[in-house]
Amino acid sequence: MRMSKGLATILTAAALLALPCGAANAQVTLKVVMHSDLKIVDPIWTTAYITRNHGYMVYDTLFAMDEKGEIKPQMVDKYDVSADKLTYTFTLRDGLAWHDGAPVTAEDCVASIKRWAAKDSLGQKVMTFVDTISVGNPKTFTVKLKEQTGLLVFALGKPSSNVPFMMPKRVADTDPNTQISDFTGSGPFVFKKEEWKPGDKAVYVKFDKYKPRSEPASGLAGGKVAKVDRVEWLAISDQQQAINALLAGEIDYIEAPSHDLLPLVKADKNLKLVDWNPLGNQYTFRPNHLHPPFNNPKVRQALWYAFNQKDFLEAVIGDPTYYKTCKSEFPCGTAMSTDTAMAGLLESNFQKSKDLLKEAGYDGTPVVLMHSTDLQVLTNLAPVAKSLMEKGGFKVDMQSMDWQTLVARRAKKEPVNAGGWNAFMTSWVSADILNPVMAGFANAGCDKAMFGWPCDEVTEKLRDQFARETDPAKQKEIAAAVQKRNTEFTTHLFLGQWYLPAATRKNIDGVLSAPAPVFWNVEKKSQS
User: Fold this and answer.
1) Which domains does the chain have, with CATH numbers?
2) Segment (H or E) for 132
3) Which of 56, 272, 323, 365 is the right S-S partner for 317, CB 3.0 to 4.6 Å?
């Protein structure tokens, strides 16, 4: 029997209405290749940026930094400051909920602040000013200070590692040196733990009960509106394979494409480059102060003469469009930038390095230098360091491993012969190192310092002075003094600035300019 055209149309429409929700409107999935595989998922336990990026998917923050670098309320609706500037009362927004449906409470936030502050350099410093943190009611909590500091709200909106992410109290009560196992957040995406396969993919789905702020998204602040249903982070370590997948339309976004492959992106009309981190990044060398030979300050000081920035930048980045030398601990082009005490340093004066090692009584103890092999923007750093150090009189045992193994190993304080280490190299986003209190590697607070555990009373007194000072000109003087002290004591060495845009398909819009790659506001439009 033949069916009339009109009847067929009606039945087809009825059939579509009868389909399960979402069948007629296909789910929008964003397929992404991040700079590293996700293996560690506690953004308080580690500063690794892949874990920070995971944190921004799953968790929310009390305050956040916008595109102009200003700190804005995020989970906080309003806050009041007493006349003496010693009492801060914070009120949470209505409608905040955890992924399990429970309401976010002030008690959750207080526990989260305490766990974060135990690990983070800026958090530790701010807590020295805090007298008490108390819960008023389910939506309000109060921080009382012992003395004034302008850093409290800034710290709660810190944009990068460690980010003060809010977690349920039951999770935040976990010892900060123990990794969490419950990944319940209140952010715009839910982590699908059952689909997480390290070495393959991590999956996030839109949290349908998330209540974004009414303001437009700006940097890490404003309305976090998820415009895709699902985000898949695919583990593709081969850069050429990742670019090929992008060219073929099999993936949508590459966070950190290899610099030498950027011309392929520029040449394809279906792809584009997106400069999501205009402040850029800084390479650093971190010595371990606990064990020989870097427990000797004169041995550490020899590094300033063995190294130069350009060799590192050329070996890793290559194209001067995407790097610049910068003899400043705090990024060039930012408020605290300074060239104080840098004359003659980072110029590969190998004889001076050898002379210092001789004065220090260096006995040829090999430096165990951890070498990250699977991140293109780090891979060539350690081989350059090894070459320059050996020319400067060091013996170097370079041990190769993937980045996640390095991240786990650098947390160990054991001696080298028991699985420890002497040095490693990494990169910081510039937004992490804008001043002496933010910069994690500037912390010289002994056991409270980051891996490497430098211990220097002079540095810590200067950082305290910076935390108390409100005059920008005086802050800059203190920052210069911190840098001068670093050339003597050597918490770390700074080895130049570099930049890298993301690569996306042309139909991807809404990528925000921020210190971290985030996926709210990102839209995947249909392609003609």
Assistant:
1) 281-498 (3.10.105.10)
2) strand 130-137
3) 323
Asked if 424 contacts 286 with a C-beta cutoff of 8 angstroms, the reply is yes
* CB neighbour burial string for 390-425, b if at least 16 within 10 angstroms, e if fewer: eebbbebebbebebbbbbebbeeeeebeeebbbbbb
Q: Are 37 and 198 in contact (CB under 8 A)?
A: yes
Rg of the chain over all Cα atoms, to the nearest angstrom: 25
How far apart are alpha carbons 468 and 292 in whole angstroms? Answer: 35
- Under a CB-based contact definition with an 8 Å cutoff, are residues 219 and 514 in contact? yes
Contact 522, 255 (CB under 8 A): no
9 pLDDT tier (thresholds 50, 70, 90): very low
Check residue 252 and give left, alpha or beta (phi > 0: left; psi -120 to 50: alpha).
alpha
Amino acid 476: pLDDT: 97
pLDDT of residue 7: 40
Report the mean per-residue pLDDT for the chain: 94
* Contact criterion met (CB below 8 Å) for 492 and 287: yes
Q: CB within 8 A of 154, min separation 6: which ones?
A: 71
**To the nearest whole percent, how much of the chain has pLDDT over 90?**
93
